[in-house]
Write the structure tokens for this entry.
Amino acid sequence: MTPGKVLVAQGGGPTAVINQSLVGVVLEARRQLGVERVYGARHGVRGIVNEDFFDLTQETSHNLELVAGTPGSALGSTRDKPDLKYCQEIFQVLKAHGIGHFFYIGGNDSSDTVRIVSEEATRAGYPLRCIHIPKTIDNDLVGNDHTPGFPSAARFVAQAFAGANLDNAALPGVYLAVVMGRHAGFLTAASALGRKYDDDGPHLIYLPERGFSVERFLADVKATYDRLGRCIVAVSEGIHDHSGTPIAAQLAQDLERDAHGNVQLSGSGALADLLCDEIKARLGLKRVRGDTLGYLQRSFLGCVSDVDQREAREVGEKAVQYGFWSGRDGSVAIRRTGHYAADYTLLPLAEVAGRTRTMEDAFIAPSGTDVTDAFRLYLRPLLGSGMPDAYRLRPNTVAKVLKP
Amino acid sequence: MTPGKVLVAQGGGPTAVINQSLVGVVLEARRQLGVERVYGARHGVRGIVNEDFFDLTQETSHNLELVAGTPGSALGSTRDKPDLKYCQEIFQVLKAHGIGHFFYIGGNDSSDTVRIVSEEATRAGYPLRCIHIPKTIDNDLVGNDHTPGFPSAARFVAQAFAGANLDNAALPGVYLAVVMGRHAGFLTAASALGRKYDDDGPHLIYLPERGFSVERFLADVKATYDRLGRCIVAVSEGIHDHSGTPIAAQLAQDLERDAHGNVQLSGSGALADLLCDEIKARLGLKRVRGDTLGYLQRSFLGCVSDVDQREAREVGEKAVQYGFWSGRDGSVAIRRTGHYAADYTLLPLAEVAGRTRTMEDAFIAPSGTDVTDAFRLYLRPLLGSGMPDAYRLRPNTVAKVLKP
């Protein structure tokens, strides 16, 4: 018989809605027959090996609902990427505490951890049900129409560029902003959803799915500026040259690398500053401003898609249902139905684990610096209700008197 | 008799609510007896000397209401700071077009322009009523309890830090973000309103009203990190050493200066990056992230204080009422009543023009790195209704089994 305790944890970067998934797990698990306790591990897998657990059976449902509406990872998170030995330690702790169901909310690295722990349990003949729950603002999990966390971050990016466009129209110049996303350009592409009028920015969108050339970039900016007298550019932090070297890495003096061996891209304004310097130096343009949207994209309190909220809640709830009734381990995935509804499925862990989805060619315009209508149709319903809108004065020009 | 045309213009940096003031002027002016036309100058004073006007009498009130709710300067703005000759040109255009009432929405530089134009009209014996309407996210106009645009920007900053605090609690480290404000620290201080629980960040707030020492800063960060295992820092872009040299200027290779001779502080991530590099190099801390809130602070579409919206609308409406009924030129100012209501007055232009307000000592904690309760009491009602709130899980720790 499966042991009666449930464990849930959160891994990787926090999002606006990851606590919805947590609370979906906790409330649904608490109503399952035979569940003695629902534990939450503090700071992901690190909290598991340290036996650092909260007993969420003793948390009020009222407070859980309030936490669900709060961004960030309420249990704490980690960047640890466990190897086999680490996963064996995780398994020993789960066994020692009588955990029968393990739910891990995270991205593709987290799904890989779930896969290894699942294999360890099978090898040991220990009855453990392991379910991965999707989460990432990068939208880079394979097998998913989209991933919880991405729609809210995309909404933030769209609203940021819509506002930057209004600001730049009032005080013209070049405005460039760097958006998160190492390999997948979905979040950067979301900037296009900030446009309303024909001449609205962003006028140029640079994605990691396409090779980046500084010469081509400068020519694009110049052409836009010559045409409109201003130019707004969205740049993915992950842009790289045709040989695959990140543009950010070409300039950084000493590169910080994370536990996964990746160059640290966020938490610095260097890429935006470099590109602005190039524009000023090579094109001789005066008012050139660079921003890096930074951690606000995933953490800003008060910018959330209601569609994202309810789907994040449901993947948590579905995870428990699959865990108790499907008889197999897996990764919960979102499927799209019609225009627009969401449905869920349970994928084998090996199909999702450690793999990275990037933007489909059909979402990227032939120019390589814009998105297609297919992408707009894909993203718009995910942004949710109540998207703010921008309006303009209509021109009723007055005849000149002094210099007609 | 006063000529029957009204002119309105917008100057300086756009805000979330400057179009409320514009529409307040237009709708109130359109209902005044004897008003033939209401013109709007494109891009501030530059549009005036170029006779680049929209006839806002021919704009629907419906669209005006939609524009009022849109951030940015709907007429366009300018960074031009007119000298006497420029102001004389402005006056010649106003005369040629039969303008009897001139309303200019802007900060302290704009109020100075209104003052000079007013003096020119008086000297020429031309019946022109000139009213300055306050606007600035920096909150640095003297004679005002606060200025329209500041509350919405302050709300953005508070929400940004509230979210960054949740993110940083989940993945601990040092997080530093640079906030706009060259001489006045109000906007940086607003980060304190993002705190809820005792250990919430920002833990350190550096304002331009206090001299900045890198040594002291590093000691502050270390002490906070040692105490909490994490540290969130809010830094004003205008911080300077005790001799008055901006910290940003100490490191920038080639300084860009604006028309006012000021070093360009925004539109670059350099200051945040420098401070983060110091923390990494000198304190040996690993996870150090720097953001620059950048133009989002004043332009983000969808973060606005409803209190700010209605006050911005009213200063525009009051400006027209003062302009038509008070018999004198001046600058509209906001006064505070009770806890909390706003009232308005008309100040002499010379009292406001070209002067800069900074934070009162009573708003800054003795440590120099925090705000006082007086500041919280001052700012909270301005942030408006519906401020998002953050909630936590309450600790119910589980006993360890393997390593008790």
In short: The longest strand of chain A covers residues 99-106.
